[in-house]
DNA sequence: TCTACATATCGGAATATCTAGATTTGTCAA
DNA sequence: TTGACAAATCTAGATATTCCGATATGTAGA
């Protein structure tokens, strides 16, 4: 849990919007061809479309959120699915409460 | 409580170090000529010396922390004293826990 | 193998942040 | 009212972030 890495990831409103959208994926992102949005997570292109960013930016933002421990990734075939990492998020919230 | 403003303020390790140093000012900053360090807070020049920044940077970082609601300011004569705003800090910790 | 498609990586322009030195402002005391 | 000092503001160069388009990589099916 690198708290500084997490804070930098959260310092961008678009990345926070992605994290927020993933609370209720079906409501925020268009349906995807394969993979259950609730079980597997949301694929990059669906997040891209929902959030309105370029494909490259979407991909790197998601990697950044993942390195910060805020989302979890599952790769299957051509698709990469992202979902919130609730454990990581709680750990961060706790670290803020304890250390700040 | 502008959560984005707070996160941006915390996105800089030096500002976090200031906030952290203010938990125990007497241990982290040199004594000041006037004003009780525990009651009034710590003056800008003492923080500057303790943290090792230029005067101008110290002053603007403190203003930024104050606008974010993380520190409180008291001006008396030539001196400006800063201390942690524990209410603001708790509010932020709670907002992270609830909203993130 | 060839093609199509999802994602990742690269390169770069625009913008923001960091931080210092120089200058200005405000306050006190002589 | 002048001098000294604390803090704030201004200016600017170095570095980091934002975000895109172009290209590369990996996988599945024909």
Describe the structure.
2 copies of one chain form a homodimer. With 100 residues, chain A is of the alpha+beta class. Chain A is built from 6 helices and 3 strands. Chain A has helices spanning 3-10, 13-21, 25-28, 44-51, 55-67, 86-99; strands at residues 42-43, 71-76, 79-84. Chain A has a 3-stranded antiparallel sheet with strand order 1-3-2. In chain A, helix 1 runs antiparallel to helix 5 and helix 4 (44-51) crosses helix 5. The longest helix of chain A has 14 residues, at 86-99. The radius of gyration of chain A is 13 Å and the shape is globular. The model of chain A has no long low-confidence stretch (mean pLDDT 96). The structure holds a DNA duplex (30 and 30 nucleotides).
Overall radius of gyration of chain A = 13 Å
Please state the structural category of chain A.
alpha+beta
Helix content of chain A: 55-70%
Number of strands of chain A: 3
Q: What features would you highlight for this structure?
A:
homodimer; 100 residues; alpha+beta; globular; DNA-binding
């Amino acid at each position: 849990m690198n708290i500084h890495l997490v804070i930098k990831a959260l310092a961008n409103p678009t990345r926070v919007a992605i994290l927020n959208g993933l609370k209720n994926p079906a409501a925020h992102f268009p349906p995807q061809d394969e993979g259950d949005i609730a079980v597997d997570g949301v694929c990059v292109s669906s997040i891209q479309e929902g959030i309105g960013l370029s494909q490259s930016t979407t991909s790197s933002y998601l990697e950044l959120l993942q390195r910060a421990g805020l989302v979890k990734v599952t790769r299957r075939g051509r698709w990469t699915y992202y979902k919130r990492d609730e454990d990581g998020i709680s750990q961060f919230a706790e670290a803020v409460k304890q250390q700040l």
